[in-house]
Each structure stands twice: as structure tokens, then as C-alpha cells.
Amino acid sequence: MPQGGVDYMTEAFDWTNGLKARMKSVFNIREFRLCQEGVCNANMDGRDIICIMPTGGGKSLTYQLPALLMTGCTLVISPLISLMTDQILHLREAKIEAVMLTSATRDSEKKQTIERLKALAERRSNPSTGEIKLIYVTPEKMSKDKSFRALLQKVDAAKKLARIVIDEAHCVSQLGHDFRKDYKELHLLRKIFPSVPIMALSATCGARVMKDLISILGLRDTVSGTDAPPQGTILFTSPLYRKNLHYRVVPKPESSKEHLEVMKTYILENHANETGIIYCLSKKDTETVAEQLREQSEGRIKTGVYHADVDPGTKERLHAAWREGKVKVVCATIAFGMGIDKGDVRFVLHHSKSLEGFYQESGRAGRDGKDSDCILYYRPQDASTMAATAARDTEGEDKLHAVLDFAEDLTTCRKVQFAEYFSHSSQLSVSSWSTSETGALDRCGHCDNCTRPAGSTENRDCTLAAWQLLKITQSVRQQGGKLTLTKLAALARGGKGAYDVSTKKGRRQEKETFTIDLDAVASGSVDMSKLDIEHLIVRLMTKRFFTEDYQQTAYSMNVYVAPGQAAARLNHQTRQTIEAGSASVKYQFDFIKPGSKAKKSKAAKPKTTDSGQPSKSTIPAKRKNLTIDSDLDDSPDDMYDSNSDNGGRTMLPVPNIDDDSDEGEFMDWSYSMRDDPKPKSQPPLPTPKKRLKITEPQTSKANYKTNKGVKINIIQEGDIEVVELSSD
Ligand SMILES: Nc1ncnc2c1ncn2[C@@H]1O[C@H](COP(=O)(O)OP(=O)(O)OP(=O)(O)O)[C@@H](O)[C@H]1O
């Protein structure tokens, strides 16, 4: 074996020919890509390895292929049952002896696997089953099952444990965004298997997280894979940018009905009979979206549903149907997809969440290297729903502002935005986004912002509008009122100009309606469309001119707009100073010009070949023009019912905590894509037998009594939760 200064990327080794032959015969892959060859070589050489490759980059091959050539079995620790199931299906198709042990594994299979491991430990061979080459387990299994660990130690003592692979290894670190406590227990591995090489795999692992990971797993410091000394953990990294993925932010319609129509049209016109994933925000939404897309397309869109509550048998059948192309579009929560290996996913549709989520989920598209769309549906009102979710996360505000900045940005290349964001949030080097062809901060040339037609946006000075919005907000708050983003936008445009203030009179909650004199308060109404004002408020929020004011009620987290730290800079100005251009601050933003149309983005994409290389021809444009109409100004000013008894507030749903986790599956917040609930009443006290429809997605049913003696009975009526109030 070469000693010191080994170049795992380019040198030829004893195993090189065997490795390549197996790659072709078993995996049907002709060429290594990215750093795969180096990782396989370091793997064959028994080194500890950290490998950072983008989602869909081909990490699995780097341990599965060497596993076939090495003696004994490779243990893979992986967080998702769905991921393992998918891997096992693939491996078995390729006639590789692969097994998994999870809570979903049938008892008979578990027993058989344990027997086979015992046979390995005792060096007994069983010609009918063959030697296990890969065994997949969850981190929970490793941390909690002592007898399993003891059995693995016996396998190791028999020199039959070839390697330990930790997939999604960034979950080890509390500094990362996906920390899982069972991963932390993996520090045991080096202690109980001191001589078994460890390989840590991840798609997003910044410097801080990597340092933590090295220390927790007991690895040596990292060394380069192109000049590797005999000691040290070999670090391999690949560019995180995948040029066949075309990112776009698409305006989301007001109602979920219209949104479904938009998705249906998009799929039928651009990806008829192609494979895609729609990430929904709750388990219920996955079912609704799947059913309605199927119905509205008259069966042309073949949908399936995946979330943590779907039983294992149904999941398995869905996987099989998806792989066989009987199901084309999977409507899923985040429980689906991490590691799902289907090459021809042509589109992934998302709802506003986090940038990490958007990047990771997008990674499930285009694994075969061909052009694929990653679409984020967004409207400014989402900011309120997302803020309600972010309120529960310590880093929530930064993440919220990052995704809002991303969605509101009409000019910066999406690739550059990702590079800048991840270099700050995860300390991933900006250079991780450069490729052999383009630098990290070069524009990709094919995202929505790169293909936006010249002249379709305009940069407007919004200083006066910002000042007016501030004055309106301050005036309403001085009266004890609070405004949501939509209500502020509606008020600022004039119209009825009324808002409600709730006050407590003794034991009673009373509501008073105030009118606002915009001439007196803000020297006039804001001269912009309602949608543009909403966009402006979101942008002013991320610039801290406004801030989120949270109010938790029994049913929901309400988010209001309040003056932020930066507002002071504009507070003392007057309309005259701003109009004269002598204000000390200036707020300028880009807006879509009214009537502008988005370019046919597919036509503008550099067409990529199977290997992901750009080809000379361009793709014929088959998608319809998408009109981005900034002047959606047809909503009546009294849309926000000032006579409603809640002061016109939009009651934002408490995000459904859709604990969409299988054993070992990630959990995340999710919130409904159903229509924002109409303004509705707070329960008045105490009113005999009053029925009040609550449209926010409550998941639990309950019966309880308030300390005022009001009985609250929450019942389910079809899709809607009904709250019955009655007094004793
Ligand atoms: N060298 C290659 N050439 C062509 N296809 C490849 C190559 N290597 C892997 N693939 C294919 O790329 C797809 C993605 O691979 P894989 O699932 O290993 O990605 P991954 O890096 O593990 O992604 P994730 O982070 O999402 O788990 C698979 O379909 C795989 O067969």
C-alpha cells in the first residue's frame, strides 16, 4: 500500500479494475462522478472518511460499491426508514445481500437477520442466504439496543465488520439544523469498534458542524484526499451546485382552490406523465392535494400520498408503484424523500418554509442529471404563517428573514443566494458552490432571476410609502389596535379605513371600531397596489424597519406588524423632507412591472445531457407563459370585514405540529396550505350555546371548561373543527 501522500483521486490501485467492473455490472454506472472514485479508493484502503456531496450527488455508491469487494458486512446508520427501504429495494434488485433492522421490520425478518449476523460472527456460511454485505439500521437502534451492539462486536471480532457508514452525519451536531439526540450517542462507535473504519456522509455540513462531528465521532483531524498522509480522516467535498436544477419562485394564488388549479396546469403543461414530488405542509394536505389533482385532471395526474401515518405496507406499495411509474406525483410531507433514489424526478413543488428545506427537498429532483424544476410557491401573506412557526425556533427569525429575502428577491441569481446564505448559516465555504465551469458567485443563467426579461422589473423609491406605513401602524397601536400584514396593506390604500380594537371591560371583552384619517395620520394613502404594499411590508420586516409582534391565543399564534429597530431612523421625517429627497434614509426595492410576463424559463435553460453537461441545443419551450401580475388589485377594500367582531385580524393558525416522523424520521413543523382562515370571532364570554366555526387546522379534539365556567367542546365536522361554547 502506498505510504503518505496518496492521491486517492487519480492513482491506480490493486482494486481499481475490479471496482470499475463491479460498478458497471452491478450498478450499471459507467463513470464515477464528482469525488466518487477518490472516496471509493479511500474506502477500500480502510480510511476514516468524511464526504460532503450535494443531495443526489451519488454518495451511496461510495460505500455500496466498496462493500461488495470487501470481506464482511458494512453497517449503515441512516435516519429514515423510507430512505432505507428505498436503498434496500435497489440493492436487492441488483442482487446484493442487503438487510435492514428497524421498528418497521417484520419479526420473522428480524429473526432471520439476527441469525445471519450470528453466522457471520461464527464464520459459518449459509449457501441458501449468502453473506450479508450491507446492513441498514437507525441511530436509535444503535444507541438503544445493547444486545444488537454486542452481536456486532462479535461480528467485528470475527473480522467481518468491514466499515461503519453514518449517513446524514451532520445530525450528530447540536450546532447543525437537524440535530438528533440518538445521533449524538454514536460517539460509542469508536469506543466499541476501535479498529472499524468510519465514514460520515452529508450534503450540508459547514465548518462548525464538521469540527463538532469530528470530535463527537472520535475521528482524527481531516487531511486531503489528493495528498493523504497515513494518519487522518480523509475529507472529500464536491460542489454543492447542481446545474440541472432550475430554481424558481412562483407567485402563489390567494386561495388553495386556485393554487391547486395552478399546480394542475403547471404539471399537465410542463410535465405530463413525468415524475414529481409535491411537498405539502401537513399530512391532511397531502391527501387533499393528491385527491384533488387526480380528480381535477380526470386521472391524468397519477398521485400518491406519503406521510408518517401511512402504514408501512402502504408505504412499501407506494414506493414500488412510484418506481414502476404507476404513481407519478407523490404528495408528501418531509417524511418522504431524504435519500429517495429515483433518477427521473422532473419537478419538485414546495411551499414557503426554510431555505435549508427548499435546498434539500429540491435535491430530490434531477438525480439523473437531466433538467428539472424546483419551484417555491410564495405570496407575501405567507410571511405571517411562517413567522408563527418561526416563533418556536431559537434561530427562527434569522431563518424566516432569509427565506423571505430569497422569495422577495427579483434580481439575484438563486445559486448565488444559496452560496451566500449557506456560507453564513452553515459556514459552508462559498467555494463549495463553484464548479469546474463557473465560480460560486457567477450567475447560473437559468433560474427565474437570471431569465427574467430585461425591463420586467422596476426599482422604486419606497421611502415615502415606508414612512406612511409606519405612521399608520403607530397611530393604530396608539389606540390599542394591532394590524396584521394584510390589514395594514388594506388600510394603507384607503377605502373604508376602519379597524377594531378589543378592550376588556371588567370580565367582558369589548370591541370598538375606529376609523383612520389617512390624510391626518400619513398625509394620504399609499399609492401602490395592495399586493405591492404586502411585498413592501415583508421587505421592510427583513430590514427590521418593522418587526413581528406575536400574540398567542388558545387557538392560534397571531402575528402583527409593529415598528422595528430601524423605524426610528424614519420616524422624525416629514412627507416634505422625504419628497425633497433630504431624508436620511432611503428604501428602494424592485417590483414586477404591472403586466410583465415571466420569460419561458425552460427555453432559457442550458440543456443538460445525461451526465449533467450543458449541450449545445436548447430545450424547446413547451411551457406556457406564466403571468406575474403585480397589479392583482381587484380585491375590494372591504375584504377585511371591519364589522367582524375580531377587529379585522387574520387569525393565523397555530402551525400544525405534524409530528411526521417514523421511528428515526426527522420531525419538522408543518402548517396547512389550506386557505388562510377567514377572520373569526374570539369566543365571547359567556354566551349560551353559541356555535363558532374555527377553520384553522386543529388536530386534537377536546372538551374543557374555562375558569369563567364556559364549556368548550371541540368537535370535528368533516374538514372543519367546530367549537361549541356553552355556559353552565
Ligand atoms: N457516477 C454516476 N453516474 C450516474 N449516475 C450516478 C452515479 N453515481 C450515482 N448515480 C445515481 O445518482 C442518483 C443519486 O445517488 P444517491 O442516492 O447516492 O445520492 P445521494 O448523494 O446519496 O443523495 P442524498 O443526499 O439525497 O441521499 C442515483 O440514482 C444513483 O444511481
From TrEMBL:
Q: Which Pfam families match?
A: DEAD, Helicase_C, RecQ_Zn_bind
**Catalysed reactions, semicolon-separated:** ATP + H2O = ADP + phosphate + H(+); Couples ATP hydrolysis with the unwinding of duplex DNA by translocating in the 3'-5' direction
Q: Give the GO terms filed under biological process for this record.
A: double-strand break repair via homologous recombination
Q: Where is the composition biased (Polar residues)?
A: 609-618
Q: Which residues form the Helicase ATP-binding domain?
A: 40-223
Residue ranges of the Helicase C-terminal domain? 262-411
Q: Where is this region: Disordered?
A: 597-702
**Keywords annotated in UniProt:** ATP-binding, DNA-binding, Helicase, Hydrolase, Isomerase, Metal-binding, Nucleotide-binding, Nucleus
Give the InterPro entries listed for this entry. DEAD/DEAH_box_helicase_dom, DNA/RNA_helicase_DEAH_CS, DNA_helicase_ATP-dep_RecQ, Helicase_ATP-bd, Helicase_C-like, P-loop_NTPase, RecQ_Zn-bd, WH-like_DNA-bd_sf
EC number(s)? 5.6.2.4
**Where in the cell is the protein located?**
Nucleus
Biased segments, Acidic residues type: 630-640, 657-666
GO MF terms listed in the record are: 3'-5' DNA helicase activity; ATP binding; DNA binding; four-way junction helicase activity; hydrolase activity; metal ion binding
Q: Which GO terms describe its cellular component?
A: chromosome; cytoplasm; nucleus
PANTHER family of this UniProt entry? ATP-DEPENDENT DNA HELICASE Q1, DNA HELICASE RECQ FAMILY MEMBER
The family annotation for this protein states: Belongs to the helicase family. RecQ subfamily.
Name of the protein: ATP-dependent DNA helicase
